[in-house]
Specification:
By secondary structure, this protein is α/β, with parallel strands linked by helices. Helix content is 43%, strand content 16%. The C terminus is likely disordered.
């Protein structure tokens, strides 16, 4: 087992050291091949995800494949400019020097994908790895085994198999792989596993990007169009059966509109999924028995009088109905940890100030959602909270854009990617000062023996001047 991991990493290291990943033309060619794979194998990938999660092809295409293809096209269009060296300002003593930053690849990157979006969360980071000139070992989640197998088969058919090997396996195989030395580790998944990855990386002082999760709150104010709010909120919550890292985890609803919210939630659920959600072809299933048992335990511990709708389950198909609770408190089991399923608790608050206090008592979330038509309410919440990202008057959309960085803060993750942020994350900015062997008189004062006269000259030549500050002084 350890021999296989070492062989794969060594092969990728040799490929990187051969410099084949450096030319921009090669990077663009690999990006185009990845785009071809996603386009030509759309049905294969959709079928694999359906087998793992019973996720509708519509959802796979919209939430994974289109997002991934947009990321690839953006990189193809911009990688030339992203990779250009950038010049910096100079002081008087540096006027004859060249001072610039080189964008260089890190080396061999480990990309560990997640089971809930098994295509995009594995292949989106590889776009950044390719664009920045790295090699990457791809480790799909073994939980979504059908998608992992499909990707392991397709990648070598389209991509450079030495530069981008796929490594399959469960916890034992992953543990062995993490013993190898990488130049960066990119992990998407849960906070507990994120801690394990970070611990393993620390042995080699390997930098990490951790895209984790947490309880992402959603505030619903009193000045809203409730029918629109419920459509957008439930779309974000029920996508992938609630198994989304940025899904609204709980609602903080203004007391003046909580009854109206509940009324429209019931109506919207019926409009989206019909009288019996179990019969809808559009609702994904829980990924495995372990997660089904975990979510079922939450339902079993909740007081029956707080149930608004849902609660039905079928262990044979791992179906859990969209389930909503009202009058929830922070002491209820549903608020103990990230739900990662189709359960939506509603906490009633007096105003946005009470909502921010509740948010700030938890770990910093990966996402924050605010529904309000009052700009001052939105700004108040933004000013007094912290989160990885924010969408106002919708859900998920800040993550879907390749023109915004996506990442967490605190327990919800470290580092961000998408577009140029991914390129920068997997690049080293190498500072270069290039001097000519002349103009010695400019720097002669720095040499020993030191004198007060030379010190005065160096102060004049090297100290930055703030004209406004100097004028006041």
């Amino acid at each position: 087992m350890s021999g296989r991991a070492k062989e794969i990493v060594t092969c990728a290291r040799i490929a990187f050291e051969s410099k084949r990943t450096r030319p921009i033309e090669w990077r663009i060619q690999q990006l185009r091949r990845l785009h071809d794979m996603v386009t030509e194998q759309e049905q294969v990938l959709a079928d694999a995800v359906y087998k793992d999660l019973r996720k509708a092809k519509f959802e796979v295409v919209v939430s994974e494949l289109i997002v991934l293809k947009n990321e690839i096209v953006t990189a193809i269009k911009n990688v030339q400019s992203w990779a250009e060296q950038s010049y910096v300002s100079k002081n008087l003593i540096q006027k004859m020097d060249s001072m610039y930053m080189r964008k260089e690849p890190l080396g061999v990157v480990l990309i560990m994908g997640a089971w809930n979006y098994p295509v995009v969360l594995l292949l989106n980071p590889i776009v950044a790895a390719i664009a920045s000139g790295n090699c990457a070992v791809l480790k799909p989640s073994d939980v979504s085994e059908n998608t992992a197998a499909a990707i392991a088969k397709l990648i070598p058919q389209y991509m450079d198999k030495d530069c981008f090997p796929v490594y399959l396996g469960g916890i034992p195989e992953t543990t062995v792989l993490l013993e190898e030395r990488f130049d960066h580790i990119f992990y998407t998944g849960s906070t507990p596993v994120g801690k394990i990855v970070m611990t393993a990386a620390a042995k080699h002082l390997t930098p990490v990007t951790l895209e984790l999760g947490g309880k992402s709150p959603c505030y619903v104010g009193k000045n809203v169009h409730m029918d629109i709010v419920c459509k957008r909120l439930l779309w974000g919550k029920l996508m992938n059966g609630g198994q989304t890292c940025v899904a609204p985890d709980y609602i903080l609803c203004h007391e003046a509109v909580v009854d109206n919210l509940i009324t429209y939630i019931k109506k919207t659920l019926k409009d989206m999924l019909g009288d019996d959600p179990k019969e809808s072809p559009d609702l994904a299933r829980i990924v495995n028995d372990r997660n089904f048992a975990r979510i079922s335990k939450v339902i079993d511990t909740m007081p029956k009088e707080k149930l608004v709708v849902g609660g039905e389950r079928d262990i044979e198909t791992r179906y859990i109905a969209p389930t909503v609770y009202k009058n929830v408190t922070m002491d209820d089991e549903v608020m103990a940890s990230e739900i990662f399923g189709p359960i939506l608790p509603i906490i009633t608050v007096a105003n946005e100030d009470e909502a921010t206090k509740i948010i700030n008592r938890q770990e910093k979330p990966l996402a924050l959602y605010i529904f309000s038509n009052k700009p001052q309410v939105v700004e108040n919440i933004l000013e007094h909270t912290t989160s990885g990202g924010v969408t106002v008057n919708d859900t998920i959309m800040h993550m879907a854009s390749h023109n915004l960085p996506f990442g967490g803060v605190g327990f919800s993750g470290t580092g961000s990617y998408h577009g140029k942020w991914g390129f920068d994350r997997l690049s080293h900015e190498r500072a270069v000062c290039w001097r000519k062997q002349n103009m010695e008189a400019l720097i002669a004062a720095r040499y020993m023996p030191y004198t007060d006269k030379n010190l005065g000259a160096l102060k004049y030549l090297t100290t930055e001047k703030d004209r406004g500050f100097c004028a006041v002084m």
